[in-house]
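subagent[fold] <- orchestrator: predict structure for attached chain, return tokens only, no commentary.
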Amino acid sequence: PLVTADHVFNNRLAVVSDNVSGMEELVRYVYAKGHRKIAFLHGERTTVTQNRLIGFHRACEDLGLEIPEEYIRECVYHDPQRCAQVTRELMNLPERPTCIIFPDDFSYIGGMNVLQAHGLRIPEDISVVGYDGIHLAKVMNLTTYSQNAEKLGSIAAERLISLIERPKTTLIDRILVQGELLKGGSVKDIR
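subagent[fold] -> orchestrator:
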């Protein structure tokens, strides 16, 4: 019996965050604050990343936003150094974004350090958002999309027990778990 949490593996039962709607909600939030130059630094190519990219592009399309390709950059999840490098590249563009969506809250630290080294203040000069909702994001007052890790784990455990105790009647499917937008102080209203 196998259940994966926030990862899809070999068509097995998976309990995953709804990364499509989570990213859509983040984009809509920063758009509502007046941002039209939105950069998205995403993680390496995984199912999670593909879903977040779909959510990003869907929201942009629905809002009529045309995002330059140079604003959409690949990073590595949980890697502040790589995120710093890509943030530096964004800051060297002739037309900088007004808001950067980072691949996760931890990687944001690398981006934050680069932004501060460029003399930029968050959110006064540039807005930023993260993804995951880790405790550190709350401490840093980062706007982020919080994944419901407790619910993910709880459902995964329940489904694993079901697979063990009732293997012939337990559906092998993908269960989506909603998170929530945490509105920190890292997005400036520029309307």
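orchestrator: received. Logging for downstream: Helices lie at 19-32, 47-63, 80-91, 108-117, 135-139, 149-165. The two ends are 52 Å apart (CA to CA).
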